[in-house]
Fold this sequence. Notes:
Blueprint: H1 3-6, E1 12-18, E2 23-29, E3 32-39, H2 43-49, H3 53-69, H4 71-74, E4 82-86, E5 100-101, H5 106-112, E6 114-116, E7 126-128, E8 132-134, E9 148-150, H6 153-162, E10 170-175, E11 179-185, E12 188-195, H7 197-207, H8 211-214, H9 224-237, H10 239-251, H11 257-278, E13 288-292, H12 294-305, E14 311-313, H13 316-336
Parallel strand pairs: 1-4, 4-7, 5-8, 10-13, 13-14
Antiparallel strand pairs: 1-2, 2-3, 6-7, 8-9, 10-11, 11-12
Amino acid sequence: MNDLEKSNEQLCAIYVDMGTTNTRVWLLRGCEVLAQASKQVGVRNSAQEGTTTALRATLKELIAAVQNQAKQLLKSRAPVCVAAAGMIGSPLGLAELSHITAPAGVRELSAAAARFEFPDVTPLPFLLVPGVRSGPIEADFRLSDPGDVMRGEETLCVGLHALGLVEPPAVVLTLGSHWKAIRLADGKIQESVTSLSGEMIHAVQTETILASSVGNNWPDKMTPDWLEAGMTEQRRSGLSRTLFCARLLELKNQGTPQDRFAYLLGAFIASDLDALVARRVLADNTRVVISGHDATARAWAFALARMSLSAVVLTEEETEKAFLAGLNQILIEQILIGAISTGGSTISSTASSGIEGENLNGRAATS
């Protein structure tokens, strides 16, 4: 058990990770998960519906669900607040919280975290963690690099570092709806590069002629030969042509839908990988930690190994634990400076080991 796990064993709080398509909620006492709930509702619903009604109803439901699940375990102890990261702080979430500028670590994230009240969701105060942006502040389409942004991954990186699962300098690769490479150095996020590859693969599977060629599920295993063939063809012919080649392979009865999906995945990986190498986000001896769907993460590890780059693939449990640890560190800092009340409980100052900085005054917002 490390120092982070030993401290604040009685701190009770609710943690939220809101993404594009999914919302997850946990209730923790210290580092122990007492209850959890999730629902396939995210900020995409706000974008489609033009309102946050679904988000608010979902959060209210999930927060009530974890409180009910843990009722007997908590007895008289109630959660002190809801700590949240991800798209909840975006313009499509409950309240917009501006990105902070990289380089950014625990100190900067803690200083910019803000308190909000959403009484239609829960009487508990909310602590929202900001995202991080890198690159030029002013947008200009003529610039070769308009920069990048993240929401949620910054909290994951804080937790990975706190738990010793990543040792900067390194690159954290997160593989979800968006594929994001995050470069860490000196204990802070330095920059990130994001692509739409996850969403594009889903769109290719469901909205194009390739639907029958590659199937509509992500296989649990990828065939290495087919992965490599897709990577090779992408480098020779480009991404769009390689995608159509998957259709041609089906017409010639070559492989199964799972094989052809591996071929397609290889094409997307090669496209993103070569861009990251060209930008020098990935270079010789770069340490890489990968979070995401296990088969996709291992496909990336396979591709990196072809370039003599080693990678560690995180389990789903490690990724979840790191995200919660990141939120916990930021919450503890807020409690220590008095921004969040513990209702009389004491929090040891050793809990913030490695955390520096001051908190900016939390901004209250009505719903």
